Structure prediction request, 312 residues.
Amino acid sequence: MSTNVLRTADGWWAVLGDRAVRVDTKAVTTAELLADRAAVCEAAASGEAGTPVADLVALSPVTTPCRVVAQMVNYRSHARDSGFTGDIPPAFFRKASGSVSGPGEAIVRPSHVKFLDYEIELGLVMGAPLPIGTVVEERDLPSYVAGLVITNDISAREVQLTKTQFYESKSYPTFTPTGPYLSLLEPEDFAHLLDLRLKLSVNGELRQDRTLADMIVRPAQALTLLARFQTLDAGDLLLTGTPGGTALKAPPKPVEKIGALLPPALKWKAFFKAQAKNPHYLHAGDVVTATIATPDGRIDLGKQRTPVADAH
Prediction:
C-alpha cells in the first residue's frame, strides 16, 4: 500500500487517515526525504496518535528548485477538445520550478492575463536519476518513480497561443499548485496506475473527470522518450498531461479554416473575442478543487483546494 507524506513549515509528516505523525528526519528537500524513506516507514508504523491533518498547513511536497517537465496533449479527450486528429507525436515542455506552489495557496492571475485556464495532471516524482539513453519498461517504473502528486498546470492562454510560448504561459508564480500529499508507492501499487481517476471542479462544478486509461503516452514510455534528451534526478517532477474539459477548446472546423486565411493579428483578435464569451476561464474568487485517487482508495493523493486571486 502507498504511504502519504505531507510537508509543513515544521517538517515532514506521515499521513494515517485523518491524523499525521511527524517523520524523524533531517531531510529538507524532497530528494533528501526519499533517501531517508526508512524514517517515513518508521513514522507510519509508530502507532502514535499524531496530529489532526486538518490542523496542518500543507506546503508543496515537491521542494524547489527542481526540474519540472510536462507532457503536451497526452489524453485522448484533451486531443479531441484541442481539435487534433490522427496520431499525435509525443511532446514535452519545461516549466519554471518557481511556479510550484502549495495545495492551498491562491493561484494568482497576472494583470495582463484574461484567459486563465486549469489543467489537472498526475505528477510523477522521481526517486532515482534517469540518465540520458535510459529505456524504461513497465516493470522498471518502481526503480525510477518514487511517488505521485496532484498538480495543476495553470495556463495563460493568450500568452501560450499568440507567442507559441509554453514556458512563459505556464511558469508564472503559483502556476503549478502541487500536493497536498506525496504518495510514496510500493512496487505492487504501480499495477493500479490506470485506475487513478483525475477530477477537477471549479466552484463545485465538475469540469474534468477521466482515468489514466485515457492517456496516450503512459509513464514508462514517457520516461523513455524524455531520456533521449533530458536527464532527471530524484525529486524532479514530470507532469503527465491533462484530460479533456479545460476552458480552452478548438473552434469548429469551418471557423478554423476561415481563421487560417486571416493575418495572425486578426486571427487571434477574432479568436479571443469569441473566447471572451466563454465563462469557464478562471476569475478572482473562484475555487478550484482537484482530486486523484483509485476507486478502492489504495492510492489517494488527497484534495487540492486553491482559490483564485488577482495580482495586486
In short: The mean pLDDT is 94. Residues 94 and 113 are 20 Å apart (CA to CA). Residues 3-55 form one domain. The chain is about 20% helix and 30% strand.
